Sequence to fold (421 residues):
Amino acid sequence: MGKAQKITIPYCPRPLQREIHDNLQRFNVLVCHRRFGKSVFAINELVRDVLTCKLPKPRAAYIAPLYRQAKNVIWDYLKEYTRVIPGVVYNESELRADFPSGARVQLFGADNADTLRGIYLDSVVLDEYAQMSPRAWGEVIRPALSDRKGKAIFIGTPMGHNNFFDLYEKAKTLPGWYVAMYKASETGIVDEEELEAARREMTEDEYSQEYECSWTAAVKGAYYAKELQDAEEENRITGVPWDRGMPVHTSWDLGVSSGNETAIWFWQQAGREIHMIDYYEASNEGLQHYIDIIKDKKYSYGEHYAPHDIEARELTTGRSRKDTAYTMGIDFRVIPLSSIEDGIHAAKTIFSRVWFDDKKCARGLDCLRNYRREFNDKRQTFFPRPLHDWSSNGADSFRYFAMAYEDYKPLPDNIRVNTDI
Fold:
């Protein structure tokens, strides 16, 4: 046999990157300020994992919130740090590097996490996890690690109290998890002159979030940041009981494609107050699933609202989903077509009257916190439209609620729902 060839990857980690490489466990949560070097760290960790894995045909995945982000940010890094390996083959269409040993590193987007179903993984990085739906981890990625006991790294910058925050807090109490936070004021990676310039040019919330890893800073471009802050300060996000004597209304946003969630808010009128008592969402389910959920909750229902596209007729059957739902026992009221801007304005207008159950509506609240304008990185300005991501469906459903409320006429206070069944 010939002498083994020694290959040196052209990566020299910074001291803090080296510290993380040396301390990683099977599961890891890393909160890092901007310009920390997390992407370079992440791709080199994946390469090391598959090249040193003792199992046959190791597989590693880097997952960004959007597929195009993975391609724009990481693909060049993957090629840069692996091209010294003899025999490596790059698949440009699948963003994949195949090594002679049978190992593979591939890039994915959490916006289409279903593409990972059915594969196995020995190592995975979920970059900017705050921008991902937690369903991608629980339903798709975590099972892919099970049979080979693969490793996971969650990494990113905070974006308010969402799934990344929840994971960070939970991971601190779990055995076998490595958790670390790296603030710009502590690492010294970005010099003080540059940090001071950033402070002058950014809002306080932007700087706190991006450089100081603040969980409480408002999400950049968030539509309902002030409204949610007011709700917190006024204690309107709390335990909200279900009034069995009053009807429960629902507003829906129906997913129309694979991986696109259907989201449902459940609400009641209580004098001038509107009580959000429940929230539900799921994906890759038929209409019957959601109607079964509605019935299983045992609420006494009033109106069910859905957007205008529920009336679109399918070419194969000639029937609309509104027609189909009617045969299943749900008679939807249709919300007329209007602009997104008008709907957001309606939601902002009514927000001060809304109370949220902090437990049953936790997922819906995360959607509202993260619903934000799309940012143009080249021009450093916001587009005049929302970013479509995992938070959109819950926020759209809330927007439909606000528009439906104008149609809803509350019962007089002296009239109650007959709950005898």
About this structure: Confidence is low (pLDDT under 50) at residues 413-421. Residues 40 and 77 are 7 Å apart (CA to CA). The domain at 225-405 is CATH 3.30.420.280 (Nucleotidyltransferase; domain 5). The radius of gyration is 24 Å.
